[in-house]
Amino acid sequence: MITFLKSLYLSERFFFTLSSIAFLFLLSYWVPSLYGIVWIGVVFFAAVVIIEMSMLYSTTGLQGDRILPEKFSNSDENEVLLQLKNAYSFTVNVAIVEELPVQFQKRDFFRKITIPGKNRNTMSYIVRPVERGEYIFGNMNCYATSSLGMIRRRYTFNKEQMVKVYPSFIQMKKYDFLAIDNRLTHIGLKKIRKIGHTMEFEQIKEYVVGDDVRTVNWKATAKQARLMVNQFQDEKMQPVYSVIDTSRVMKMPFNGLKLVDYAINSALAFSNIALKKGDKVGLVDFSHQLGSYLPAVAKKTYLNTILDTLYNIDSKFLDSDFGTLQALVKRRITHRSLLLLYTNFEHISALHRQLPYLLAIAKKHVLVVIFFENTELKSLSETETTTIPEIFDQTIAQQFQFDKKVMVRELQQRGIQTVLTAPEDLTVNTINKYLEIKAKGLL
Q1: Which residues make Cβ contacts (< 8 Å) with residue 124, sequence separation at least 6?
Q2: What angle do CA 203, 209, 212 make, to 5 degrees?
Q3: Which three-class secondary structure state does DSSP give residue 5?
Q4: For residue 24, which phi and psi values (nearest 5 degrees)?
Q5: Separation in Å, CA 194 to CA 78, 147, 428
Q6: Measured distance CA(315)–CA(299) in Å, rounded
Q7: What pLDDT is stored for residue 180 in this prediction?
Q8: Which residues contact 39 (CB under 8 A, 6 or more apart)?
Q9: String of b and e for 324-355 (b: at least 16 CB within 10 Å)?
Q10: Between 144 and 222, where is the model more confident?
């Protein structure tokens, strides 16, 4: 009986009809001729309710299932499927109320569908997580009603399901596919002409416009009676590390996603590209102390280890200790390597405090300092102003932007590669810098 009552819900039509009958009852005191008609209505109303109740409760007529992927991709659109089967012999209208994970802060999920008798229906919806971690889905509540529409029977499916949100493997696959398909320019990646020096010989081919004339093979040219050039490929097995600063400066949000998550997504996509090109990839994260350290390895299966490690990384509310990073690099990374350092400097004084450590690292390794444009300040600096306070705010914003450009210039003058990027362009610009360094043979 308790189970029955928990699953029984009265519809809006039920209460509207009931209130109308009550109104007619009151009216019948002044209009006695309505009294008999009202009682006929009461009997008819009760009959309809009983009939619908017997229809909905005669059997378990609705079956449902929520189908979740094995894992979600952070910052991407992920699809969730809802499958419903109508075992009744009649058409039912189903209202679906999903209990989404608390991270989405959404308590008004509601969908309506109609399922013919002895039929199935599949619907989907999209979720976009912006935090890594475990997401717990609650009940999938379905309220079934017949065409009479007086009462609803509640069904509850998938009482609790958990799915983990990992760094953006969708973004990783996107860049992986485009790289293999040789269509990098479609997403903003630059085609960089290979210089040919400090690279491995691959083959002799016919000269085409744009090839370096210094690579002409004169012996092959004489034999073939047409201009032939030596083609080189990038050196392989070069160690490349993604170094992620997880201090408080990386907690700044942009479009709901923290800067550290942009860095993590970029590191995963970049590591995949580097492995495809035959390089060895490693990972370091640090804040006030050393976090994870993965030595550079060239195995493609190593990407799973990197993915699991990135899943557990998070930013701290403490300042970063670049001295600890420099000591780690000196002690553990003994071969000349490419180090992609994801960090952020909002003021030039912050860069000056860390500059001695950056210079010490750059003496032996190719260091690329990757930091972020403040896109909100950029938007403010380009806004048309009319009042004194607006002009003052715009001037401050322009000063901060100028400081960023000064930081880039100062790092470059000291032989340190830089990438200053908007958060949404981070992955593209990082891969561009990697391809540029490989093409120039800087490593």
Answers
A1: 79, 80, 81, 82
A2: 55
A3: helix
A4: -65, -35
A5: 38, 70, 19
A6: 28
A7: 56
A8: none
A9: bbbebbeeebeeebbbbbbbbbbeeebbeebb
A10: 144
Q: H/E element holding 293? A: strand 290-297
Q: Return the bridge partners of 163, or none.
A: 135
270 contact partners, CB below 8 Å, separation of at least 6? 242, 340, 427, 430, 431, 434
Q: Which of residues 191 and 442 earns the better pLDDT score?
A: 442
Distance, in Å, from the CA atom of 76 to the CA atom of 269, rounded to the nearest integer, reads 14
The DSSP call for residue 289 is S
| Measured distance CA(308)–CA(305) in Å, rounded | 5
The answer to whether the Cα torsion of 292, 297, 302, 306 is positive or negative is positive
Q: Tokens in use for 337?
A: 């390597």
Out of 174-188, 345-359, 396-410, least confident range: 174-188
Burial class (CB in 10 A: 0-12, 13-18, 19+), 392: exposed
Residue 185 pLDDT grade (very low, low, confident, very high; cuts 50, 70, 90): very low
User: Residue 396's pLDDT is what?
Assistant: 76
Q: Measured between alpha carbons, how far apart are the two ends of the chain, in Å?
A: 75
The DSSP code sequence of 38-90 is HHHHHHHHHHHHHHHHHHHHSS--EEEEEE--SEEETTS-EEEEEEEEE-SSS
**Tokens for 105?**
């802060």
pLDDT at 420: 94
Strands 228-233 and 151-157: what pairing? unpaired
Report helix, strand or coil for 435. helix
**328, 331, 349, 442: which is closest to 341 by C-alpha?**
328
| pLDDT (tens digit per residue) in 64-115 | 999 999 999 999 999 999 999 999 999 999 999 999 999 998 988 999 999 9
Task: Give 207: exposed, middle or buried? Use CB within 10 Å, 0-12, 13-18, 19+.
Answer: middle
- pLDDT, mean of residues 240-254: 93
Please name the helix (run of DSSP H) or strand (run of DSSP E) that holds residue 392, with its range, or none: helix 388-413
Give the C-alpha distances (Å, rounded to integers) separating 303 from 39, 261, 298, 332, 341.
74, 17, 9, 20, 19
Structure tokens, 204: 């002799």
- With a CB cutoff of 8 Å and minimum separation 6, the contacts of 243 are 283, 284, 285, 286, 325, 339, 340, 341, 342
- Provide the token pair at 231: 């083609």
Q: Using pLDDT thresholds of 50, 70 and 90, give the confidence band for residue 198.
A: very low
| Chain CA centroid to CA 372, Å | 18
